[in-house]
Please model this.
Amino acid sequence: MELTYAQQQALLNRAVDAVKERFDVGPGTDPGEVSRRIEIATDAVTDAVTRGGLLHSQIAVLSGVSGLRVIGLITDWSAQGEAIGRERHNAKVYADQVREAAASHARQRVGAQGYGAKAQIAREIGVTRAAVDAWIVQADAVDI
Model:
């Protein structure tokens, strides 16, 4: 049975509220209350991603917690596996973007400061000088 937009939104709101409440516990919170909140959050999140077809990342963003915390609340193995696959893909895309930003930074600095700055650049951004050299060679190859 296909859910309406309003039904999906209701599932999303329920999951977001449950996740917020789950992680809004202090050191003096009764362990029974913590268990109750975990149970409510796992039910709401699992329902939202399985029945509602919602993404765990939507719940995470709206709840103000990491996607991995939301994944931990999904009790359906298949849905949890799909969510982990999305997180892995997002992490790879992010790592590629960071690598490209570092490479661009290195190329701009070498262009402005000369090749003598390669060792300093490598230290500042936490890569080897060989990585900086490779980025410069890569940029030179693209410019040709």
Summary: The chain has a mean pLDDT of 90. The chain is about 80% helix and 0% strand.
